[in-house]
């Protein structure tokens, strides 16, 4: 089954000491799943920002992403029109503030035509999900 992987899954797949490493690494290793270029930026920000108690050097983080993530994923393009359409629907869907970032992952997953969006932040995504959206699951 083709899946969309958000940045939380990508980050965990790169950190062997992370509690979810094995599951996230296994899904990433299957190959052929979808993500966005923006998810790579979120992954880089998380790895280099120190929020998880780990601060990876920027050059090393970029190499980790290039070597371990890029060969395993396909990219869905989220256009300017997609972004504006999502923003116009935001109020109706209860999306405000930082929730737009999670919602854009859901928009990308829908556009990729996947059946499942994998995230470690299931609760945040399930609030945004509608009946015709991909299932939201932990790896």
CATH level-four homologous superfamily name: 5'-nuclease
Measured by DSSP, the beta-strand proportion falls in 5-15%
Placed side by side, the strands forming the largest sheet appear as 1-4-5
Instruction: Choose one word for the global shape.
Output: globular
User: Helicity, in percent?
Assistant: 55-70%
- Termini distance? 13 Å
What's the CATH class, please?
Alpha Beta
Number of domains: 1
Reported for the largest beta sheet, the result is: 3 strands, parallel
Q: Under the CATH scheme, which architecture would be assigned?
A: 3-Layer(aba) Sandwich
CATH topology: Rossmann fold
- Any low-confidence stretches, pLDDT <50, length ≥5? none
For the secondary structure, the number of strands is 5
Alpha plus pi helix count: 7
Radius of gyration of CA atoms, rounded to a whole number: 14 Å
Helix/strand order, N-terminal first: EHHEHHEHHEHE
Structural class: mainly alpha
Overall pLDDT confidence: 94
Give structural notes.
This protein is mostly helical. The chain has a single domain, classed as 5'-nuclease (Rossmann fold, 3-Layer(aba) Sandwich), CATH 3.40.50.1010. It has 7 helices and 5 strands. The strands form 2 sheets. The protein has a 3-stranded parallel sheet. Helix 7 links the parallel strand 4 and strand 5. The two termini are 13 Å apart. The mean pLDDT is 94.
Briefly summarize what is shown.
The chain has one domain: 3-Layer(aba) Sandwich (Rossmann fold). 56% of the residues lie in helices and 11% in strands.
Q: Layout of helices and strands, plus pairs?
A:
Elements (H helix, E strand, L loop, with lengths): L2 E3 L1 H8 L6 H10 L2 E3 L1 H13 L8 H12 L3 E3 L4 H14 L5 H14 L3 E3 L3 H7 L6 E3 L2
Parallel strand pairs: 1-4, 2-3, 4-5
Helix pairs in contact: 1-2, 1-3, 3-4, 5-6
């Amino acid at each position: 089954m083709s899946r969309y992987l958000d940045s939380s899954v990508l980050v965990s797949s790169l950190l062997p000491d992370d509690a979810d490493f094995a599951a996230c690494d296994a899904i990433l290793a299957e190959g052929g799943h979808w993500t966005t270029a923006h998810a790579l930026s979120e992954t880089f920000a998380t790895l280099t920002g120190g929020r998880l108690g780990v601060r990876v050097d920027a050059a090393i983080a970029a190499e980790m992403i290039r070597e371990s993530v890029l060969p395993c994923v396909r990219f869905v393009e989220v256009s300017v029109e997609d972004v504006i359409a999502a923003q116009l629907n935001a109020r109706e869907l209860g999306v405000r503030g930082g929730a737009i970032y999670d919602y854009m992952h859901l928009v990308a997953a829908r556009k990729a035509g996947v059946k499942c969006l994998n995230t470690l932040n299931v609760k945040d995504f399930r609030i945004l999900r509608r009946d015709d959206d991909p299932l939201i699951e932990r790896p």
